Task: inverse folding
């Protein structure tokens, strides 16, 4: 195995750990809502390594987090959502990132994954109507969306200055 592959594996493993900690321990969790910063970990992997790495990292971290720190019953649909988030971020952030890509990625994740898919999964899991869960999901999206839209540009700028040159062997 080359040094770059080993470094990629180590970084992805660390981001899985960061994702689990941010999602399960450093966020506000209720049975149906989660407010946290765990998507920054998958955004880092998406930016550095692309969609495949991001979807694998976010999917694995979802399963590990659900097994180690359960918050209600495990439901595979949420892992599907996590994989989709990794895929969307990977497609939007890999190799080229700008404000429009950030806006598109955040809105796609919030609309498709948070508002639609996760609400469907909650509806199926708890046998309640879709509209019962939608108001809480809208509040969550209204809080998380601006945080991500403001935070992601700063994150990518910091990665460009410090981490990316190091990972490319320039430091």
Result:
């Amino acid at each position: 195995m080359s040094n770059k592959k080993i470094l990629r594996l180590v970084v992805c493993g660390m981001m899985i750990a960061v994702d689990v900690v941010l999602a399960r321990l450093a966020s506000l969790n209720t049975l149906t809502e989660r407010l946290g910063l765990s998507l920054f970990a998958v955004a880092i992997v998406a930016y550095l390594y692309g969609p495949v790495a991001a979807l694998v990292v976010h999917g694995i971290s979802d399963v590990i987090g659900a097994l180690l720190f359960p918050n209600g019953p495990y439901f595979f649909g949420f892992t599907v959502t996590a994989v989709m988030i990794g895929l969307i971020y990977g497609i939007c952030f890999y190799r080229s990132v700008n404000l429009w890509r950030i806006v598109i990625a955040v809105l796609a994740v919030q609309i498709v994954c948070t508002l639609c898919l996760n609400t469907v999964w909650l509806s199926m899991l708890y046998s309640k109507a879709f509209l019962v869960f939608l108001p809480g999901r809208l509040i969550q999206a209204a809080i998380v969306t601006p945080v991500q839209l403001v935070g992601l540009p700063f994150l990518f700028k910091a990665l460009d200055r410090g981490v990316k040159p190091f990972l490319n062997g320039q430091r």
The domain at 3-165 is CATH 1.10.1760.20 (Arp2/3 complex 21 kDa subunit ARPC3). The longest strand covers residues 28-29. Residues 62 and 79 are 6 Å apart (CA to CA).
